[in-house]
Specification:
The strands form 7 sheets. The chain has a 4-stranded antiparallel beta sheet, with no helix packed on it. The mean pLDDT is 89. It has 1 helix and 28 strands. It starts with a strand and ends in a 6-residue tail after the last strand. With 372 residues, the chain is an all-beta fold. The protein is globular, with a radius of gyration of 20 Å.
Length: 372
Amino acid sequence: MPVELYACGFNAYGQLNGTSVEKAPTDLLKPELVLSAKDIRVLYVGWADSLLEVDGQLLLRGAASCGGDTYIDSPTEDIVWRSAFGDHTGLKGLLSEDGDIYLFEQGPDGWPLLKLGEDETTFVSIAGNGKIDVVADSDLDNLGIIDQGDSFASFMDDDLWPSERFHLPTSPTSLVSNEISFTAVLPATSTTGPSVFSWGDPRYSSLGRLPDASKPASSPHPIDHLGGIEILKVSSGGYMTAALSSSHDLYIWGGRPGEEHHIKALPDVGSAEVALVDICGQDGEPKDIQDVAVGGGHILVLDEDGTVWGVGRNDNGQLGIDPQKSKFVDEWTQLELPCLTKEEPRTKRQARSVFCSPWSSFVFVDIPEDST
């Protein structure tokens, strides 16, 4: 089914809509259609660049694209990309479904993808503080192995990599990071139920658990509040993390103390608790949640009716609201999409999923084949 991609938020380098830097792009203060195709994936969005996969082709936008849209050739035609990763300096590399890591480096002829080696890597994530964690398949009793380094530079130096190695009960099904911490989802095993592990800097309640001598913050340990709950997705950004369960329940934790505003859905500042969040319809009943995404200080949620809700920071219009009206929204507010209005019935277009970068928001909308 064809899809449209809508975006709003920070766009100073044209990384959202592909506007050339020479044309002085501005922030998108309400959701705008930025791309349409048969298939679209947002792989990476940073401070100045974005990388998307459009109908099997890699599309670079922003400062690194040297103005406008730049399509990048994959090393082979049959390669399937799992994810992309980067740090505060920009995009660093891509990970294929085969577990191969490719560096993303600018050369005289553009942006070649340079293969590092065959490591059978499953996840790569870089936190805002520079720490990088890499998950690789293990042949040892299906244990999950996580290698950690202090920076991307250490990852590239065999003498420095890894600085830490962690072992998990089983291989994780996902790995995400925010400014200071990492979160991994583990499936059930023959002896344990599904679980969510966290590690990193314990400040700002970012771990969703209270560290102690037996379960230090610096190494992966389970979040007790989520023990036994099957988690379909985790998303993390800023100092917050959200988890979506198979029962379509939404859990959120974290939040930075000392800020002027606070998202009411989050636990109290300084609490190590995980909040079960309800978004209720007009009948007062909680809605099933279909998707969630966390940005640098804002959260997007997609409910069962295809409505997109947002909360948190809106400095750059990432909630689709003019910042002059409100730079922060502490309660859930509906994100108005131009394609889902009274003039365009919801039966024709349906929001499919959401994605957040630190300062922007994306909504994927399905277009039925017979839509006109």
